[in-house]
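Aim 2 progress update. The chain analyzed this quarter is reproduced below.
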Amino acid sequence: MSSLRSLACLATRNNVRHSIRPTALTANVRASITMRRTFATVPPTGNHSSGSNHLLWIGCISLGVAYTYFQKKRAEKIDALVHKEQLENTAAAVATKEQENQPKPKDTSTPEKNTKKEPTNKPDNSKKTASEKEINYQQVYNDIAELLDSNEDYDDGSYGPVLLRLAWHSSGTYNAKDGSGGSNGGTMRFKAEAQHSANNGLEVARDLLEKYVKSKYPELSYGDMYTLGGVVAIQELGGPEIKWRPGRRDQGENKCTPDGRLPDGSRKADHVCDVFYRMGFNDREIVALTGGHSLGRCHLDRSGYEGPWQEAPTFFSNEYFKAITSREWVKRDLPNGLWQWVDKANPEVMMLPIEITMLEDEKLKPYFELYAKDTAVFFEDFANAFKKLIELGVPFTGDEKEYVFERLNM
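Predicted structure tokens:
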């Protein structure tokens, strides 16, 4: 009976009643016990002699002992089977638990409905440059190009010049000595940098790209978007082809640079040279990049100056160099207390005070004259210098594809 209780107890603890059929087993054991008791207690009947009776009793007792021994061994065997099954069940349960804890494979099936994804290029100070998602950069280029002439009431009817200025100002904060600044972080999206005095008015370009480009390509980093906007402006407004590659990763607001890293138009040539030397440019590259002023105009409420640098501010050419080297420039006072140079024959065209000092600098003047005479040389030098500018401080891996974009409107 102790074996039977053990069997029932184990079966209850391990939920294996269905495996060992305890009801049938109990019935069989009870029958065996009844038989054993019958043989042990019922006295023999008949007229046999006492010797025969003694032998009969001895035989019955022996048979009862043998049967009891048999039943004990049988119960022990059953107990062993139950214990074995318990171990097997425990092992199976452990294996099932381990299988449940294994990471589940990703579901690669296509969802029934497309949902808007959040940008994956979150602030990151690492040197990773691999794209989070395959982006069709030619299509991004085309989308930006479609925006250039979308508002005829803005300035001279084109967003191109302000996009070029955004690309230049988001890159020109680079410091070669400590590696800070540059286009890699896309940090002008933060107020701490956007509110620098030299960046007044660039919210026009940033808001335009945010609304029509970033919303469509959330995986596109701000640094890539700002610099690509400049490439679009140059090419679509008649300038040279600019080689461009992705790889800029957005960084946090703590990476914003201090104010004062961009040129101040009221200063002299040595100031602008210091700014460009800090980034790693030479004199020829400095003058070539200054040729970007062939596009756009100054605004009194932004930079403190007023007017375009030449009569076709939405067409990229070497006309800036022709104007500055060949026209007569006179001073004009401005209502805000500043002053600027204007063309004596056409006062609507202007030059910043710093630009005339650059023209007069003996190291820089030869390049102004060279670019005024040769458009092809200017285009080649500008393309190389601008590519260098927008890549300053970007930790490229070397695996990035370099793009030469097909023009959309030319």
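The CA atoms of residues 27 and 33 lie 10 Å apart. Residues 137-391 form a domain with the Peroxidase; domain 2 fold (CATH 1.10.420.10). These observations will guide the mutagenesis experiments scheduled for the next reporting period.
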